[in-house]
Amino acid sequence: MVNVAVLGYGTVGSGVVEVLNTNKEIIKRNVGEELKVKYVLDLREFEGDPVQEMLVHDYDVILKDKDVKIIAEAMGGEEPAYTFTKNALLAGKSVCTSNKELVAKHGAELLAIAKKNNANYFFEAAVGGGIPIIRPLNDCLTADEITEISGILNGTTNYILTQMSEKGAAFEEVLKDAQDKGYAERNPEADVEGYDACRKIAILTSLVTGKQVDFEDIHTEGISKITETDFKYAKAMKASIKLLGISRKIDGKFYSMVAPFLVKSKNPLYSVKGVFNGILVHGNMVDDVMFYGQGAGKRPTASAVVSDIVEAAKNLGKNIPVEWEETKYELGKFSECKGKFFVRMKDKGLDDEEMTTLFEKLGEVLYVRAEGVTGEVAFITNEIKEVELTELLSKFEDVYSIIRVDF
Ligand code: HSE
pTM higher than 0.90, yes or no? Predict the structure, then answer.
């Protein structure tokens, strides 16, 4: 029997206990022996819940118990999760987590500590919830040079954008509906401003480069400025608007960003709707590989944490190497990224000198019209550098939208 402790009995922690109980026999067959939850750490009491029998309030009880070999960290946030994880690994216990903040910030360091102590630090649930993406990157796509990862990495924003697209509704209205349904937090900033997706693409890019990609270095834009009018144009172009986390290798260097993109139906991410996530990986040999599933939610996320517990239980006392050094990876400069952009701005008329100069400098553009929208001009540029477009448009006060295009 392998003893497990669960830190935090919130959504994910209680899900971990549920998965371990519900699928006890299948998990036993996969591990070769039974997994038993010996402790659950939480500050609260859970009178009437069977978890009460295993509940402890003092982490030291778990840390000092030599019978506990694996810890599921489902606390979230940086502290005390960081200290608890570090001490567990130093004691030779493996830690499995869904905590993307911690993994993005301290992943490399915690992996190194795990290695030194013949333990494992696993974080399948930190990116894409229930979607297997971390282990496939580490163990399966090892024959390829990965040249691109692009993904819908946040369920909340994908739900909001899908509703805006299908119902023609405004961002604020859909956000409120998402909050009422429990798909968005009361404080939705981390999701809607792209910070959550940013940490996830930072983790994926660290794994692909083998070095530390700091999430602070990734240009991040959220979806709060996307309007119903943007979706009218998207519809006219038979496209959708998706919040993508992208890392693309150009001339030997990765460029990363999180931003809303116009995506057409030939891109497999176009069909990823609602709370679902999709991650597209491009390898130089395997070509495109797509991962799709539920990126959040109690059971999918807990399923991924428990799959890590199974892997840890099958490898007790043995470190599975993960290439992710603490050395910083220098991402390519965002301002140098080239792409096509959808731009909406006030139509000052063909005689306007500044407009004439703008279109001369942009060269040929593709004009777009949307039903019922007047008084503005909308177009898609040719490939142009971020910095160059910003400079050209800085002269105009009434630029309503700039959305990158990923056709
Ligand atoms: N708020 C996140 C999402 C949860 O919507 O995807 C999973 O990280």
Answer: yes
